[in-house]
């Protein structure tokens, strides 16, 4: 079957400059005829542990230059590809940032953190288990973020060591599975794997089989939201129960 990499839609992506997993994940999920256009963003110290202060600083960083460069591609949808940068500020900041980017770009904007909450609402899930490569303080803030969205976290798993910007992205898929299984609780209706630089996408189907519940990741939820915003219902499949459900827009 002939496939094309362009012509139907363009998705612009703001990606942290040390992130090496968001781009491959999006390539794996790319619908036919969609092209991706990336702009890297900073606002944090590559040599520092990405703790709550670092990630909050990234969320507040000026986006004028990466947005200017990304605007040249005229994207139809823009993804803000860092979950922790807005988790550390809360839901109001997250939605305000999305509105700001949309206003600047003239394009629907999806944030990683917002997409996770929207996907959980879409699946009717109000109790989750949570796992990430973040430091414990960011996980605390993430759980608060979910709580504001009406979602209770009944169990969580911390990595247990302070991973830097490189080693977060170097966690293997097997390590991600181990982290998720440590978070598993019979009380949870789904598991959330948060972080756009964690190799969660590759293990979603395996984990859903093992844990018998939906598994949501930052990159999967963002791409699902982008497809719905573009009217590409049903074109994202093979990445968990979220992508196999009946089409339903989760982005206005």
Order of helices and strands: EHEHHEHHEHEHEHHEHEHH
Strand residues, percent: 15-25%
Q: Count the strands? A: 8
Low-pLDDT stretches are 246-252
Mean pLDDT rating: 94
- The total count of helices amounts to 12
Provide the helix percentage: 40-55%
Overall structural class, as computed from helix and strand content, comes to alpha/beta
Main-sheet strand order equals 2-1-3-4
- Large-scale geometry: globular
* Amino-to-carboxy terminus distance: 33 Å
Please describe the biggest sheet, giving its number of strands, its sense, and whether it closes into a barrel.
Answer: 4 strands, parallel
Cα gyration radius (Å): 17 Å
Q: How would you explain this protein's 3D organization?
A:
- The chain has 252 residues and is of the alpha/beta class.
- Helix content is 43%, strand content 17%.
- The chain is built from 12 helices and 8 strands.
- It has helices at 22-29, 52-60, 64-71, 84-87, 91-105, 112-122, 136-148, 165-169, 173-183, 204-211, 218-229, 241-244; strands at residues 9-16, 34-41, 77-80, 108-111, 127-131, 152-157, 190-193, 215-217.
- The strands form 2 sheets. The protein has a 4-stranded parallel β-sheet with strand order 2-1-3-4, with helices on both faces.
- α7 links the parallel β5 (127-131) and β6.
- The longest helix is centred in the middle third of the chain and has 15 residues, at 91-105.
- The protein starts with 8 loop residues before the first strand and ends in an 8-residue tail after the last helix.
- Mean pLDDT is 94; it is low at 246-252.
């Amino acid at each position: 079957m002939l496939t094309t990499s362009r012509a139907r839609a363009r998705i612009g992506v703001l990606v942290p400059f040390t992130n090496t997993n968001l781009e491959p994940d999006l390539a794996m999920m790319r619908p036919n005829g969609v092209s991706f256009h990336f702009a890297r963003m900073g606002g944090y110290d590559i040599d520092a542990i990405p703790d709550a202060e670092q990630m909050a600083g990234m969320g507040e960083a000026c986006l004028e230059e990466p947005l200017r460069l990304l605007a040249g591609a005229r994207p139809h949808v823009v993804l803000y590809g860092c979950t922790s940068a807005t988790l550390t500020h809360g839901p109001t900041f997250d939605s305000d940032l999305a509105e700001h980017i949309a206003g600047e770009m003239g394009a629907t904007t999806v944030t990683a953190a917002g997409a996770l909450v929207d996907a959980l609402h879409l699946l009717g899930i109000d109790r989750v288990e949570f796992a990430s490569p973040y430091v414990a303080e960011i996980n605390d803030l993430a759980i608060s973020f979910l709580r504001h969205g009406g979602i209770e976290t009944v169990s969580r798993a911390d990595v247990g060591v302070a991973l830097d910007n490189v080693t977060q992205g170097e966690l293997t898929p097997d390590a991600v599975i181990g982290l998720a299984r440590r978070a598993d609780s019979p009380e949870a209706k789904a598991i959330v794997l948060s972080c756009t630089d964690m190799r969660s996408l590759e293990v979603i189907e395996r984990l859903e089989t093992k844990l018998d519940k939906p598994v949501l990741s930052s990159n999967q939820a963002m791409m699902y939201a982008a497809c719905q915003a573009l009217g590409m219902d049903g074109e994202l499949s093979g990445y968990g129960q979220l992508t196999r459900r009946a089409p339903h827009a989760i982005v206005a």
